[in-house]
Amino acid sequence: MQNASQRAAARTQSKGLADNFRKYWPYYVMAMPGVIYLIIFRFIPMLGSVIAFEDYQVYTGIFSSQWVGMKNFVNMFTYSDFSRILTNTLILGALRILFCFPVPVIMALMMNEIGAPRLKKTIQTAVYIPYFLSWIIVSELIFDLLGVSGLFNRARALFGLRPLLVMQQSKYFRTVYVFSTIWKEAGWGTVVYMAAIAGIDQSLYEAASIDGATRFQKMRFITFPMLLPTVITMLLLQIGSFMELGFEHVFSLLTPMTYSTGDIFDTYVYRVGILQAQYSITTAVGLFQSVIGLVMVVFFNQLSKKISDDGGLW
Amino acid sequence: MRKRSWNDQMFSGVMTVILILCAVIAVIPLLSVLALSFSSKIAVNTNAVTLFPVGFTLDSWKAIVTRPDMWRATAVTIGTTLVGTFLALIITSLLAYPLSKKEFGLQKGIMIMVVITMIFKAPTVPYFLTLRSIGLYNSVWAMILPHILTAYNMIVMRTFFLGFPREVEESATIDGCGPFRILAQIVLPSSKAVIAVIGLFYAVTIWNQYQHPLYFISDMNMFPLQMKVRQFVTESSELQTIAAKRAVNYTERSLKAVVVVFAIVPIMLVYPKLQKYFEKGAMLGSVKG
Amino acid sequence: MKKVLSVLFAILMLLSMVSVSSAEETVVDLSVWGTNNGFLPVEKGSPLYEKYLEITGVGVTQPYVEWNGGTTYNEQLNLKIAAGEMPDMFNPNGMETTLIKSGALLDLTPYLEKYAPNLYNLIGEEVWGSVRANDPTGEGKIWYIPSVIYGRNAPMIRKDWLDKLGLAMPKTQAELVDVLKAFYEKDPNGNGIADELPSGGRAEARWMGQFFAMFGVAMWEGYPQWDLYDGELTYSAVTQNMKDALQFIAQLYQDGLLDPETLLNNKSQWDGKINAGNVGIWEHIPQECYNYAEAIYESTGVQPDVALLPVIDADGYEGKGFYTGRKLSGIEFVVAKTDDEKKIMAVMQLLNAYGDTSKWMDFYNGVEGMHSVTKDGVTSRLPDDKTTQQNLILTPYNTISTPEFQVELLTSQLGTDREWAISQAIRNVKELAQYTHLPAGDGIPNSIYGEYADIQNRTLYVEYATKIITGEYSIDKFDEFVDKWYANGGQAVTDNARAWYAAKQ
Q1: Residue B283 has pLDDT above 70, yes or no
Q2: What phi and psi values does residue A161 have, to the nearest 5 degrees?
Q3: Which domain holds residue B111?
Q4: Does residue C83 sit at the B interface (CB-CB below 8 Å)?
Q5: What is the mean pLDDT of residues C392-420?
Q6: Top-confidence residue, C381 or A44
Q7: Longest dimension (CA), chain C
Q8: Measuring CA to CA, which residue among C275, C284, C221 is closest to residue C425?
Q9: Chain A nearest-CA residue for C484
Q10: Is C14 helix (H, G, I), strand (E, B) or coil?
């Protein structure tokens, strides 16, 4: 039984929403197509995640497959190398954010400083080319470059060093992962920041010039701070997909000799789930990864709201 | 005065050199694939090709360029990309704009909903069944509709809208414009950089897609370019046919290299065209006053 | 007059339409799914469809389904099943146990012997016995058409290199090492560069049978097999034989006698090295050695002699080595469950034609002008061309193959300028038979692995084996591997395997 003040509060709330609608109904209408789209194309299929709690058989169907509760999750947690894949996934995710995330920002700031417009355009286009080649192709290249007669070992030979087969050693896997990520994705990542830089008010730069600021100072005190909101949003988005290291990426670079540092959730799921067409396990692992991603986004979102007023995704 | 500009030039110069180095490193994979596509059969079979063609030949290119199914796939890809990007920009901006307004009552709720769709992915089979049930099987729309709104792109666009100067919008409201008009006639025209970026994101996603055609399209005439690439990238089996040797100067690997280049060159060339929207000050001409 | 003619013409048209439509009514179309490495689909009315109709009397269609090593194929198959559109006949590619258990497949037992006798008799009672024993429901039913092959993988050696260096074919382990050393040091390919790779293989220690075979390790294309060790059915990866084999390989790797990139090589990389004339000993399929021979000739100008390497006597394993054979090699087709009698009969008709060896050359040659060409009464296959050729769905000569048929195919290609290479292949096929040994676990069903996917995928084995070979792990780590393997499901799987074997006796 609600008491009077609770009822009053509820009434105010609904009155608030109704008021809001009356005043700002165009916003509601604008948002409708998007929301309906998301419901149909994202939410309804998402409900199918229930198969993570079933022993899902395609022939029997989603509704008739046997319910097994948390069994798939338990199997995953008790997998003998679970701690290894968890550690590897977390470490690679962290390395990604620490090393791969800043590179496009720095590159965008640097590209902004190039005087000659044609050179700038050429460089912009060149650095974003690797993004378009699939990992299968790029990884073949990496193997070639790091092979016995590849550029890397030929360079080592010049210094009198013996050839080193990097791709067979687990201690180098993380380095290869980080560098290959930067190589392939940094250029593409600069696009967003270039667009944001384009939106910075030119009068700020003019005023700084009058005050005698160097290019470096302008970059440090104008460009970078104005870019920060975009950077924070991109960072939050990146954290949201923290556990997503790119299956094709890791899989194409992985060899059995580098499992100890390179085997991650996605490759584990590939062996156990996809190869055997066990959708329940695949979905269970996916759910687990998503939950971790959600926790992290919520945490960092709260953090960024504390730092800046407009910060955070919600 | 002179000292300052020397410092500035050094600064600029160092940046430029580093970036040129980056650009060269970035271009290497493409060079290697291009080299393969122009190399002779023997060179390719014996792995003799690195960054430059060995035994230069145009045969691989001729073999691919004369195939009508490649051009059909190109048409499909171009068509779906254009239509998809156009629709995507409309529906994304329609959602991003209200979500950038604090006064919109459902803002927080919808944002949470959006973030959830971004983090939680639907499993393959239910996703497939849902889309099939709304009629998206073996239809071109199966390659367009699933891509026209992504949480990621919408959030980026929203961030840009958040940074749009309020004074401009407020003065328009005072002049009697409703939100629809403000969006269409004021915000969007001044947000060319954002539209270029988000448009590029969507265009590249649609251009590069292969999962949706894989699941939803069985008619080979409707295959986009990436499906063609996959057709060539498949490794042949261990057992071969006892057949006469081809008297041609290309192999599966060189054909594969050609198809890969064929599939990415068009979309790669779009960015340079869009770069003019990234010119400084392109976004806001009207704020000064 | 004109009017009469036009009326007659109209009547003729009508008649032909009637006969065509009645013929169409009696043709049953089956959708058949299988491997497709990028060839064109087979639609109703297309040339290959008509050809198969001519050979078998049944309409066979196949949409374009990407194979991609089986993963994409499985996904698409599952989506079809989920949507209620299972193909009529298909390759289950590892999913048969779950499909049988969910009741998705047709029980073939009441039909096969009676309605598809050609196939039934060709495969033989012994194999059918295994198929029945593999029934996961335990009722001894026949749920699939097996693929039956023979031992066709073996190592080959550049005999021309041996001749050039004045060496005899190696027979013992010591002689093998001497030959490898000679290949390494004495520049047998004569180009003045020390670029020879005496031997090697591919990633995951696959296609290195030359070294596993000599220690009596049952291994098929790099996948350890179940065989009798000390009288008990055991997974060959956890035996003493495997330990000794790995120790030998690791020593060779350390001495530089193996390609240092062995464990990184994919198929095209390793083949590239062979084709460039740099490799001395490698394992593949001797009946196809002419592919390598011709490629080596093309790139180096030297006509190699690619000969079969006889089984080497390893120290302590004299006379115990063998080349692993295979009989019940997997599942070719299962049939979707249906109550449609017409469909079932059509499937049987198709299978009966499939098993009729007199029709095999017709299957092999496919469509005239597309897959093969006939000149002066001799039909020969055209090279693979994914642009123009439809996928050959029905390849009985590959799935129920015999060495005799292979020799027949090869012989038909003699008398051309390829004779020098093809004759080597024929010689090698004939020689191989004496060395093959069928492991006791041949035909063991995948259901023994239960939910131990990593045991089925041999993940642990691959990790340890590769690290031992490169020297990162010492050979003592092998015992750790065996313990870990047994502890993480290996014991349960071994028990299942032994139960299967006992039931089979």
Answers
A1: no
A2: -95, 150
A3: 71-219
A4: yes
A5: 85
A6: A44
A7: 99
A8: C284
A9: A80
A10: helix
Q: Minimal CA–CA distance to C369: which of C387, C384, C381? A: C381
In a domain, residue A313? The reply is no
Q: Say if the Cβ atoms of B113 and A138 lie within 8 Å.
A: no
Tell whether B158 is covered by a domain.
Answer: yes
| Residues B273, A121: Cα–Cα separation, whole Å | 10
What subunits touch chain B, counting only 3 or more CB pairs under 8 A? Answer: A, C
Name the DSSP letter for residue C146.
E
What is the average pLDDT value for chain A, to the nearest integer?
87
- Of C261, C457, C470, Cβ closest to residue A271: C457
A168 at the C interface (CB within 8 A)? yes
C182-195: pLDDT as tens digits = 999 999 988 888 88
* C53 contacts C27 by C-beta, under 8 angstroms: yes
User: What are the chain A neighbours of B267 within 8 Å (beta carbons)?
Assistant: 132
Q: Mind listing the domains of chain C with CATH numbers?
A: 27-149+328-401 (3.40.190.10), 154-324+429-504 (3.40.190.10)
Q: How many CA atoms lie within 13 A of C318 on its CB side?
A: 5
Provide φ and ψ at B72, rounded to 5°. Answer: -65, -45
**Total residues belonging to chain B:** 289
CA C442 from centre of chain: 14
Query: What interface predicted TM-score (ipTM) does this complex get?
Result: 0.86
Of B80, B207, B63, which Cα lies nearest the Cα of B136? B80
Is the CB of B235 less than 8 angstroms away from the CB of C64? no
Spell out a b/e string for C313-349, using b for 16 or more CB atoms within 10 Å of the CB, else e. bbeebeeebbbbbbbbbbbbbbbbeeeeeebbebbbb
Residue B66 sits at the chain C interface (C-beta within 8 Å): no
Residues of C in contact with B67 (CB under 8 A): 387
Least Cα separation, residue C357 to chain A (angstroms): 34
CB B65 within 8 A of CB B52: no
Chain A residues near residue C103 by CB distance under 8 angstroms: 59
Distance from C-alpha of A138 to C-alpha of A187, rounded to nearest angstrom? 15
pTM of the model: 0.86
Distance CA C58, CA C343 (A): 10
The residues near C429 (Cβ < 8 Å, ≥ 6 apart) are C152, C286, C287, C403, C406, C407, C410
Of the candidates B221, B193, B170, the one whose C-alpha atom is nearest the C-alpha of residue B279 is B193
CA distance readout (Å), C329 to B6, B81, B220, C207, C439: 75, 45, 32, 17, 12
Greatest CA separation for chain B? 81
The whole-angstrom separation of Cα C94 and Cα C96 is 6
Taking contacts as CB-CB distances below 8 angstroms, the residues of chain C near B230 are 66, 68
Q: Would B229 be classed as within a structural domain?
A: no
On whether residue A189 sits in a domain, the answer given is yes
A213 close to C (CB below 8 A): no
- CATH number of the domain that residue B96 is part of: 1.10.3720.10
Chain B residues within 8 A of C273 when measuring between CB atoms: 46-47
Q: Is the pLDDT of residue A263 over 80?
A: yes
Find where tokens 């300028």 sit: C417
- Which residues from B are below 8 Å from A31, CB to CB? 94-95, 98-99, 104, 106, 110
Q: Domain count for chain A, please give it.
A: 2
CB C326 within 8 A of CB C440: no
Question: What is the span of the domain harbouring residue A190?
Answer: 79-307
**Smallest Cα–Cα separation from B103: which of B50, B151, B44, B170?**
B170
Question: Do C246 and C477 touch, CB atoms closer than 8 A?
Answer: no
- Residue C133, pLDDT > 90, answer no
Token code pair at residue B138 = 């073996």
Examine residue A147 and state whether it is found in any structural domain, yes or no.
yes
Tell me, yes or no, whether A90 and A48 share the same domain: no
Does the CB of B23 have a partner CB in chain C at under 8 Å?
no
